[in-house]
Write a structure and sequence with these properties.
Blueprint: E1 2-4, H1 6-26, H2 35-52, H3 55-64, E2 70-74, H4 76-93, H5 99-104, H6 108-118, H7 123-172, H8 177-232, H9 236-244, H10 249-256, E3 264-265, H11 266-273
């Protein structure tokens, strides 16, 4: 289940509001709007992305971008409890008894791992297949991070290109006093747009995607450990202790008291682990 990450939305909105508020308090907002500067900064930097990345990669990245605005709600405690229950059932009734449970699984990653266990795959093969899928997931996430980091570099660079264009226009028309102002406006506004987009949007989104990716990978590594432990017939108590290594001390204490940890977003999991 996903829920909107209000901090990301609040950060972008508050940043824009504060910048606009500072502008309005000192002058007119209209003088900071220049279509030519926007074309150079946004249009130029996006055109460079089209050169650097393939179309399918860009389309995939923009699908991944929603992860910066919607947090995956994860309950590691639920995962541990479920694996302990499945481990007990497998030891009591055999691995084939897990087939009905697999059909009810909502997580495709867990479902696939347990299905391989039931189908009689060897532990090394299960581990290899699941880590290949995990590596593929990590690579897709890294692509999204790389795109926004690259865009964060491009935006100020195209801002500087706009600055050069503005200065050239200004110097060429030094004899025309009326042309000096617009040329200088283009020169400064493109740098302003580039710096604002890079530092308020593109680079922070790249960082948020990196945090979410690390948290999701940590959860999936716990799943792999759980699947392999069930396949090996590990004692459910030992299985629980192994999986508790993936959670925070606070959640460990909750589980030991017989409680159920509250659902948390993926980056909250990561922060506690660190």
């Amino acid at each position: 289940m996903k829920k909107m990450d209000m901090l990301t939305v609040l950060g972008i909105i508050s940043g824009i509001v504060l910048v606009l508020g500072a502008i309005i308090s000192k002058g007119s907002l209209g003088i900071f709007y220049d279509p030519a500067s926007l074309m150079i900064t946004i249009g130029g930097s996006f055109s460079a992305l089209l050169i650097r990345f393939q179309f399918e990669q860009i389309r995939m990245v923009f699908n991944i971008t929603k992860n910066a605005f919607f947090a995956e709600v994860a309950s590691i405690g639920d995962i541990i409890s479920e694996f302990v229950r499945l481990g007990q059932k497998a030891r009591r009734e055999g691995l084939l008894s897990l087939e009905d449970d697999i059909e009810e699984m909502k997580d495709p990653f867990i479902q696939k791992g347990l299905q391989m266990v039931v189908d009689g795959f060897g532990p090394e093969l299960i581990k290899d297949i699941m880590y290949i899928e995990l590596d593929s997931l990590e690579n897709r996430h890294k692509l999204g991070q790389e795109l926004f980091k690259f865009w964060g570099v491009l935006a100020p660079s195209f801002g500087m290109i706009g600055t050069l264009i503005g200065l050239i226009l200004m110097l060429v028309n030094l004899h025309d006093v009326a042309a000096i102002g617009p040329g200088m406006a283009v020169a400064l506004l493109t740098t302003f747009y580039g710096a604002l987009l890079a530092n308020l949007v593109f680079i922070p989104i790249a960082g948020k995607l990196a945090m979410r990716s690390e948290a999701e990978i940590a959860v999936k590594e716990a799943v792999i450990e759980g699947v392999l432990s069930i396949q090996a017939g590990t004692n459910p108590r030992i299985l629980q202790e192994k999986l508790k290594a993936f959670i925070s001390p606070k959640e460990k204490e909750t589980l030991e008291l017989g409680g159920k940890p509250a659902e948390r977003s993926s980056e909250e999991v990561l922060i506690d682990e660190n």
